[in-house]
Design goal:
31% of the residues lie in helices and 32% in strands. The chain is an alpha+beta fold. The longest helix is centred in the last third of the chain and has 18 residues.
Length: 273
């Protein structure tokens, strides 16, 4: 099981991890959200809870507990476990023949290495789309397929290409490109509204870079100066290869965004007492 630690939360009730087996499988709709804990502080927590609620709205359901209660469970989970730097997952399950329930728990994670941030990572493309892309809903078939590709090819991420031949997003990330100093990313309606994505766009605005939300085909990407992915665990992670295309990873705009995003993270964490 992916759960870590001594305790997890069911609705607003604390349980021992051994009891998680009762809740880890759901035969109906499952919504989820994942975010980082840095020095026991939840990063961009309010943004993640709002997106969690938005996913529920798009799926036509209500969250099992309210947003205030979810925030309280997160701090309770941090208090009763010893992790200082880790990831927390929130799930809302809607079984076919039982009452919906909410869980919050620490999960296994893999953060990119310093070498990956310095040298970039390899990716491949896959023709696939996520139904209802703005909602973070479990898609077991697509997750299994992309995990198998990453394991077999020993690459970091799989970039999804839609029926029009455009890169939409990664299997667990958002996609960006840089061309002539302009930052480009696929339109919001076609992708998961990533919390890191939102703050990278904030970094662009703070630094005065033009941001263009438009379709990007692999051919378009080939003409770009740099490409990168963003996500909860990845922050801003340079890509050095998409299929057979190679990219430079020392682009000054990308490196400036990486530095500015780190400033945004530090400023946010400083607001949590």
């Amino acid at each position: 099981m992916e759960i870590r630690g001594k305790h997890f939360i069911v609705n607003t009730r604390r349980e021992d991890t051994a009891e998680f087996i009762k809740y880890c499988k759901c035969d109906g709709l499952t919504l989820y959200e994942v975010f980082r804990i840095i020095e026991k502080k939840p990063l961009f927590l309010e943004d993640h809870i709002r997106r969690f609620a938005h996913s529920a709205s798009l799926a036509g359901v209500e969250l099992p507990i309210n947003q205030h209660e979810i925030k309280a469970t997160v701090f309770e989970l941090i208090r009763t476990n010893r992790f200082r730097n880790a990831n927390i997952k929130l799930i809302a399950c809607y079984p076919r023949d039982a009452q919906p329930y909410f869980c919050a728990y620490f999960v296994e994670h893999q953060y990119p290495t310093p070498a990956m941030f310095k040298n970039g990572v390899e990716t491949v493309t896959l023709s696939a789309i996520r139904v209802n892309p703005n909602a973070k809903i479990f898609n077991t078939a697509l997750r299994n397929e992309t995990n198998e590709i990453k394991s077999r090819l020993k690459i970091y991420e799989v970039l999804l290409v839609d029926e029009k031949g455009n890169i939409t997003e990664g299997s667990r990330s958002n996609f960006f490109a840089i061309r002539n100093g302009e930052v480009i990313t696929p339109p919001l309606q076609d992708v998961l509204p990533g919390v890191t994505r939102m703050h990278v766009i904030e970094a662009c605005i703070r630094l005065g870079y033009s941001i263009n939300e438009t379709n990007i085909s692999p051919g378009d990407a080939a003409m770009c100066d740099a490409v990168f992915i963003t996500g909860t665990s990845r922050k801003i992670l340079p890509i050095r290869k998409i299929d057979e295309l190679t990219f430079r990873v020392d682009n000054p705009v990308m490196r400036a965004l990486m530095d500015e995003f780190a400033v945004i993270v530090r400023q946010y964490l400083a607001t949590i007492k």
